[in-house]
Write a structure and sequence with these properties.
Layout: E1 6-10, E2 17-19, H1 23-36, H2 53-63, H3 72-86, E3 95-97, H4 101-109, E4 114-119, H5 124-132, E5 143-144, H6 155-167, E6 177-181, H7 184-192, E7 197-200, H8 207-211, E8 217-219, H9 225-235
Parallel strand pairs: 1-4, 1-6, 4-5, 6-7, 7-8
Antiparallel strand pairs: 2-3
Helix pairs in contact: 1-3, 3-5
């Protein structure tokens, strides 16, 4: 039997890598103040876990009681400024590559029946900037990003559409696509789109916290390459 084509959509933060705690929050606060002239004094009330950057932006403004319409020009300027700021921290000094990630991604990359893409809350330029710290940016030729939708659950259709354009005439759908992530919102995102999900407890949530939400597969980390690949293959049969 001919091996089945499969699409693996990776989250970044907490799944592939971890940026030192507090950096992202401080950079968002600085950029919002500089570009939108809103001092984020209540930034500690905003949760980042599993959210899109667009959602985080509006959560910051809501926390400050700001009810204003932000146009695309302002938002694009904000992403540009954040890219500049994050550039100072996207190095191995501030970012840790999580266990087993490089080996797993490399194995997927070398499999002609596997296509890799991103499904991340990061805005696009920052997603690739973080991955470039470990030369992983070239492994993901497309994705869906946190600058494109507020609701993470709206990202999978974008990623799958782009995968189908990239890999035509191969056709991806909910039967041969899996999301890999580390948060409850990754699980919700997958379930909202009838997609299987593999969770790892390498982000801000424990194995037990994630297991309670019944992901299709769950691991402490991504170190056991063979077991993870075999589990995905069995799930997507």
């Amino acid at each position: 039997m001919k091996p089945k084509q499969k699409l693996i959509l990776f989250d970044i933060d907490g799944t592939i890598l971890l940026l030192n705690s507090g950096i992202a929050r401080s950079l968002f606060v600085r950029a919002i103040d500089e570009i939108l002239h809103v001092p984020c004094t209540l930034s500690g009330n905003v949760s980042f876990a599993g959210k899109t950057d667009l959602s985080i932006l509006f959560d910051f403004l809501q926390a400050e009681g700001i009810d204003q319409t932000i146009d695309n020009t302002q938002i694009n300027r904000l992403w540009e400024r954040l890219t500049e700021l994050f550039g100072n921290y996207c190095t191995s000094e501030y970012i840790r590559l999580l266990p087993g990630v490089k080996e797993l991604i490399g194995t997927f990359q070398n499999d002609e029946h596997t296509t890799l893409g991103l499904l991340t809350g990061n805005f696009k330029s920052n997603a690739y900037l973080k991955l470039s710290a470990f030369n992983l940016h070239t492994y993901f030729p497309f994705g869906a990003f946190g600058c494109e939708r507020i609701n993470r659950s709206e990202l999978p259709p974008l990623a799958i559409e782009r995968a189908n354009q990239f890999k035509a005439p191969v056709y991806f759908n909910h039967r041969n696509t899996i999301i890999i992530g580390d948060s409850p919102l990754d699980i919700k995102c997958a379930k909202d789109n009838y997609l299987p999900v593999l969770c790892v407890a390498t982000g801000g949530f424990s194995y037990n916290q994630l297991a309670e939400l019944t992901p299709d597969l769950i691991f402490e980390n991504l170190e056991d390459t063979d077991t993870i690949i075999n589990s995905i293959n069995e799930l997507l049969l």
